[in-house]
Each structure stands twice: as C-alpha cells, then as structure tokens.
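User: For a reading group we're discussing how well predicted structures match intuition. Take Carbon-monoxide dehydrogenase medium subunit. Before you show the prediction, I'll give you the sequence so everyone sees exactly what went in.
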Amino acid sequence: MHPFSFTKAATTREALDAGRRGGRYIAGGTTLVDLMRETVERPEALVDISDLPLREVRVTERGGLRIGALVSMSQTAAHPKVRSLFPVVSEALELSASAQLRNMATIGGNIMQRTRCTYFRDVTADCNKREPGSGCAALHGFNRMHAILGTSDSCVATHASDVAVAFAALDASVHLLGPDGERRIPFADFLLRPGNTPNREQTIRQGELITAVEIPALPRPLKSGYLKVRDRQSYEFALTSAAVALHVRGGVIREAKVAAGGVGTVPWKLPAVERALVGERPSDALWTAAAEQAAQGARPLSGNRFKVELLKRTVERQLRIVGGTK
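Assistant: Thanks. Here is the predicted 3D structure of Carbon-monoxide dehydrogenase medium subunit, as structure tokens, for the group to look at:
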C-alpha cells in the first residue's frame, strides 16, 4: 500500500473542499481499501465522510423513495419502507456479499464499486480500465465471468453490484453535490459503458459527492423481486441476475421494469422485454416469449457463450416468480 494522507470531514463543505483538492471519499471502504492494498488504486489523499448527515431513508412527496448515500446495505435492506414498496431492492442487497460486509458497505459506495475482473485486480496483467492503452487480457483469456452486453474491444468487465441492477430496473436517479452545486443524474446515465475509455466508469465529476439514490413513484400495486444465479449459494458474484417489477391491473400488465446483472458492463436494462410485456395478460407463454428478447445484442466470448441462454432462462424464471403463472 502506498503512502496517503487521511482527513475526516465534519461537514459537507469540508468534504467538498477536500474532494476539490483531489481527495478520494471513503466511508465503509469495503472496496477501496482492498484495491489500495493490492496497489490497484493509489490515492494520495482519503477523505472520511462517514460523519456526514446522509443516512436517511424516506418516502418522497410523490410516493417514491430516497435513500441516503451513507445508509448501509443492511440498513437499507431491512428498512420497512424499502421492503414494502420495493422488495426487489431488499432482495438484491440481501443476496450481496456477507452480512459483515453489508453492515459496513454503503449505498453510495456500492454503486461506485469497481469491477471484480481478475485482470483488473492483477497489476501484472494488461487492463485498459486500470492502465489505458495497455490492452484487455480478458478478451482472449479466462473470461467465463465476463460481460456479453455493452462490451467493446477495450473492455469486457462486468459491473458487480446487485442493487445497481434493481436501481436500473426501477429507473432510479443519483443525486450529486459538488463545487458547482447539485445535480440529478438518471441511473442509466450515471454508470458508463466502456467504449474507448473504460477507465472512466461514472459521470461523476472531480470533487462531487453522492448524496442519495432516489427511486421514483411507480403505480401500485407493484410486485417486484430479484433473482441471482451463481456458482454457489453464498458469497459469490452473479453469472446472471434479473430484477423485475410488474404493475398488473384488471388482469393486464400496465407497466414492466426489467434489468439484468452479471452479463453487462453496466447493469443492463431490458427494454425489449418490457415492451413485450406491457398490455399483455400474464401467462406462461408470455414469460417465455418476453424472455427470448433478453439477450438482444449479446456478444459472447469464448468462455461465456452459456450466458446467452442462461440470461433468457433467468429472466423467464423471475417473470414467473413475480408475475405468477396460469
């Protein structure tokens, strides 16, 4: 681990001033500290923001939900309003990491976490995300866990967050505060596909601080849930996952929100699946037909071709779980 300075911000203004000078924000530290230990990340200055007043979960005036950036994963998952309004969020969090990590990790840190690609974390390997222009060892290496959607010739690493998949499905937004004031970014625009600049992963600017994630109000009743398929039952990242939310009224699907994880360079929204569902009556045949649209645009690698079919099956299964069968 390389030398660095450490300060603890007592106020939001102190945090922003330190961030503007190049300090890296840290709260739970469950990702950043590991990367520093492995010398993947080498920040010169850390700014502890754990004392800032960003730990509230509240229902918005329109009936959505605002989750403070420093609320822990475990607190968010257990919050009664999260569980009642958007169970897909609670389920995604409870299927993430160990209980000990969920107690430390924050919502803001979770959506900022970097990829679990083994080549990114091996400083001896070529990785454009870690060292732009060096190449991507995963393209022709061991790529079973890598992405099939949103990839480029520069990077095929997946985004590891489970709850980010739920946020993407629910069309959440990220609230930011920085030197130039407040911004609100749609979640779909906050995380960036690699393209030719895989080292740039979010739209966040120098010195900006995540203050909250907000889920908009959606029609009630809303049934939702999260399914994660992995090699073992616990403490494992997704091979595929599906976040589904359905509003059914009068026996017809009026609104559908679907996204996938474990298969994209970012949490992958599935608009073709959503379009296939809206206006239709729930049925086994509908779930199968809609799920067939899940892998549109997939570019599998030598080691992960199985993910194309697995993605379709994962989405179909979760549609049946949330929407029921007839």
